[in-house]
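sorry for the late reply, my laptop died twice this morning and i had to redo everyting from scratch. anyway the thing you sent over, i finally got around to it. pasting the sequence first so we're on the same page, its 130 residues, then the predicted structure underneath. double check i copied it right bc i was rushing
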Amino acid sequence: MNNKFTPLVCDDDVILFQSDTFKISRFKELLSTGINNKLYQKIHSEQTVIYSLAKVSIVQEIIELGEIQFNFLKNCQILRIGSKGWQKGKLKIQVSKSMSDQKQNTVYLEFCPDEPDEHESPLDDLRKII
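ok and here's the structure:
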């Protein structure tokens, strides 16, 4: 098994999760919006979740957070532009949420196939050494 995650940089590639299919660009957009909606839900006394997370008190010390990061790992299939078919693997999702800008999220996706690409050979590592 190939354990190497590679960045998903083509926004037109397609991701399949069980029965839901998304272009990379649309998935990033929906994920960012979904996280914002959850974080900005109202909690007691009309405070939002994100506001309550912006500062952490430890005894008398107050620490202001500039960013929150979320990391997920999910099984999926990917269909890349120009590929021969769907490829099963794991999707690593990293989201960075700015505490100062309500709209700003950075979504970074990486994919690790369950099986190496067809063009890869077990002898490729030996060829590189030679």
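DSSP finds three helices and ten strands in the chain.
thats about all i looked at so far, will dig more tmrw
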